[in-house]
């Protein structure tokens, strides 16, 4: 018997059985056109029995390198602590599994060098394709340029970059809807918690919001448009700063719900109540938004659908089919945090 202190290989089993390694490979790799030509029924049975006895596991990475194909999809996400990104990934994983693919996720911390390193690691595994959730705005896209040059199937999710296939939401429209809501409420002095400058999501939402007010003949104060990370800590800090101004903004648009929740915490600390003293609108409509003491108005995105669409587009690219970007439609969910016109600060 072969040395069982090491995992069984095609070569070791071929030696044990007195067969050529290619014969064992055809049988165990399930080549439907080669199995019957490779061996008799008796030999096939012997090979499979030994593989079962030794608990043989195919080396999928080696097979992928040889065949230049894989059933794995790499998903690059900026951070999985973000509930929105985690929700999108969950739907990606489910849709991929239904299509016969496995996914693995790499957390890039929204840093381009880390993104490139994680992607190159995935390419060494000969993945079938990549879904990219952390592309940056601007003309320079090192990773996307690399994937296009190597003809690796890829698709963006939740981010939009001109010239690249994506499954995303119309974030500019979402910002426009938030602005329309606050304007019709009577709010004219409005601040924006705009998120990180490099993220297309925050930039598009901010652009749509500003555009609506400009169309009404109102220019928002640039010093009231603050950039920073997409988290509640930043929302609290920026909210504390803006609420301490004299005059202060009547209303606040935060480009994600965590920024809005942090801002509402800063309002609480100052004895102010959203929906009474100030108006607040967030973005993404995470489940927590409706469960707060003062339910948060928010722009709802079809996150699960976005993930499914990303997989569908990627599979088209993997199969060599033509594909066009899918841009989903957001909806405003008005709640108590923006129920009344606050007095000007």
Automatic annotation (TrEMBL):
SMART domains xrefs: HTH_LACI (SM00354)
Keyword Transport applies: no
Record's keyword terms, sorted: DNA-binding, Transcription, Transcription regulation
InterPro entries reported in the protein's UniProt record: HTH_LacI, LacI/GalR-like_sensor, Lambda_DNA-bd_dom_sf, Peripla_BP_I
Transmembrane segments: none
Keyword DNA-binding: yes
HTH lacI-type domain boundaries: 8-67
Protein name: LacI family DNA-binding transcriptional regulator
Organism the protein comes from: Pseudomonas vancouverensis
Biological classification of the source: Bacteria, Pseudomonadati, Pseudomonadota, Gammaproteobacteria, Pseudomonadales
């Amino acid at each position: 018997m072969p040395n069982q202190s090491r995992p069984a290989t095609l070569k070791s089993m071929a030696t044990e059985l007195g067969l050529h390694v290619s014969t064992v490979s055809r049988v165990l790799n399930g080549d439907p056109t080669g199995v019957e030509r490779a061996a008799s029924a008796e030999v096939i049975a012997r090979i499979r029995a030994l593989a079962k006895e030794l608990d043989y596991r195919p080396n999928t990475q080696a097979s992928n390198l040889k065949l230049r194909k894989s059933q794995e999809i790499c998903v690059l996400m900026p951070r999985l602590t973000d509930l929105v990104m985690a929700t999108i990934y969950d739907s990606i994983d489910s849709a991929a599994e239904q299509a016969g693919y496995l996914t693995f996720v790499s957390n890039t911390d929204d840093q381009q060098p880390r993104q490139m390193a994680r992607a190159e690691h995935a390419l060494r595994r000969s993945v079938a394709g990549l879904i990219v959730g952390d592309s940056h705005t601007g003309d320079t896209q090192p990773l996307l340029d690399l994937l296009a040059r190597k003809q690796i199937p890829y698709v963006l999710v939740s981010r939009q970059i001109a010239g690249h296939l994506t499954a995303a939401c119309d974030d500019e429209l979402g910002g426009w809807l938030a602005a329309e809501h606050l304007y019709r409420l009577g709010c004219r002095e409005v601040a924006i918690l705009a998120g990180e400058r490099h993220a297309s999501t925050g930039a598009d939402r901010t652009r749509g919001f500003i555009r609506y007010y400009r169309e009404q003949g109102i220019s928002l104060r640039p010093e009231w448009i603050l950039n920073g990370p997409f988290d509640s800590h930043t929302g609290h800090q920026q909210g504390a700063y803006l609420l301490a101004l004299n005059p202060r903004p009547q209303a606040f648009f935060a480009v994600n719900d965590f920024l809005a929740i942090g801002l509402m915490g800063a309002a609480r600390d100052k004895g102010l109540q959203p929906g009474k003293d100030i108006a607040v609108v967030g973005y993404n409509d995470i489940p927590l938004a409706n469960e707060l003491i003062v339910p948060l108005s928010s722009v709802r995105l079809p996150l699960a659908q976005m993930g499914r669409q990303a997989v569908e587009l990627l599979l088209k690219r993997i199969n060599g089919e033509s594909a066009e970007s899918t841009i989903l439609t957001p909806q405003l969910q008005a709640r108590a945090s923006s129920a009344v016109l606050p007095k000007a600060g």
